[in-house]
Amino acid sequence: MTDKLTFITRTGPETASVFEDLAKLRIAVFKSYPYLYEGSATYEMEYLKIYAESEKSMLFAVYDGSEMVGATTCIPLTDETPEVLRPFEEAGLDVNFIFYFGESILLPAYRGLGLGHRFFDEREAHARSFGNYKLMCFCSVDRGENHPQKPAGYRSNDIFWQKRGYTEAPDLRAAMDWPDIGETESSSKPMVFWIKTID
User: CA torsion angle for 85, 124, 8, 40 (degrees, to 10)?
Assistant: First the structure.
């Protein structure tokens, strides 16, 4: 299947050229557990602006024909939103030397093809290319062990992330707000960070 796919890279302001495709993909993928996100195109387009406003951001995407079927983003932590920055500042870490990885999303039919590793390879190479960043990080939602909408047989990505060299940082916690499926109002969700040293 991978021989039929095309790959694009956009950086800085160029990322805006595919925001509509990315917004549609984010809404589709994040609807599933554990995010259960009741997304809207209006919110997505506003949120994604941070990537176009950052000179060092990067978006790497996979297309099958004209449809974006997978994507991943990264951005200097200093260009991220306050709720992402705050835990690192409160921990006394120098945010000027940390690169933040945003979504890494694939439609279900395209999983198991090695694209998840490709996404990490692309983001890590981009972060290293500047020569001055010391840490890479991302965060994931913590739904706990007994969430009522947790599917039977659900497996988290923890082992995959550990194999990529990332370590969960339980002292780095954030909260992000979004409406769950079926809700009209946003509610706060606990987020946990994973970090890796740039060698």
Answer: -30
Sequence-distant (6+) residues with CB within 8 A of 61 are 7, 8, 10, 18, 21, 22, 68, 70, 71, 72
Bond before 34 cis per omega within 30 degrees: yes
In order of 135, 147, 194, the CA distances from 198 in angstroms are 5, 34, 13
Strand segments (E) across the chain: 5-11, 58-64, 67-76, 98-106, 135-141, 167-178, 187-197
Ordered by where they begin, the domains of the chain are 2-146+156-197 (3.40.630.30)
- Name the pTM for this structure: 0.94
- Give the tens place of pLDDT for each residue, 49-75: 999 999 999 999 999 999 999 999 999
